[in-house]
Amino acid sequence: MDFLLTSPIKWHTTRFAIDLRSPQVMGIVNVTPDSFSDGGQHASTSAALQHCELLLKEGAHILDIGGESTRPGSKPLPLADELARVLPVVREAVKLGVPISVDTYKPQLMQAALDLGADIINDIWALRWREPALSLNGMQVVAGHSSCGVCLMHMHREPESMQVVPMEGDVLAQVNHFLQHQAHALQALGVHKDRITLDPGVGFGKTVAQNFELLARQRELLDSGYRVLAGWSRKSSLGAVTGLEAHERMVPSVAAALLALERGASIVRVHDVKPTVQAIKVWMAMNAVPQ
After folding, report:
1. How far apart are CA 14 and CA 32, in angstroms?
2. DSSP letter at 216?
3. Which residues pair with 101 in a beta bridge?
4. What pTM did the predictor assign?
5. Is 179 part of a structural domain of the chain?
6. Catalytic site residues?
7. Which domain holds residue 186?
């Protein structure tokens, strides 16, 4: 099946229709003191905004701003702290002229960020997270917005325990079933398919072998007609096969990003924007040669 014939050619978001006919690079902006790879480097508003500007100079097409570390074993961050970290950055970042994604699972932050003009909600919980005392949920926030984009990610269990008891069985079948279920539930609430992308959730409750199986079989995720966002950047599975620490994994991360694109991903979420963009240019030049 040629997914380009069945999937949206644009990712429709709040302010932008992102052209998915060419690879899109989503630059990671962690406004956190404790992220697994670059925690503390961009923890202040000014440092985060400087990093946003650097990533754009390096060729990022989308910026993904997050305030809570979701590394394996991490504990949830209080809402007030996440709001205080993320919203000042979003308020200024929406002026940069590119799509702004907010990496959160908390509906209150989703709503506040969208109210500031954010374009995309990137949710590791795929809009499942619920707080008993809160009537609002992520599905309602996204469905209630007229045009925001959303990325639904698969996560087994939750960050604090996901690697303690990883998945078992056919990982691709389980991931695909879950993501399609969440996407269809969102469409039933009136969210058009061209607003939705899917992320298989590399490293979120999977073994090293399962993560590479997801990469090898990634094209099977495309059969449902949704576009795929791949997040391999500096992940521990790359360290497992190379022996490199997180800050040393630029080359393996670029290689994984290209392999994901080759297997049909439309967006790659990365820390190392410049080398990823350069590698993509080489890959696209090769693909442009008539066969």
Report:
1. 25
2. H
3. 64, 120
4. 0.93
5. yes
6. 235, 269
7. 8-287
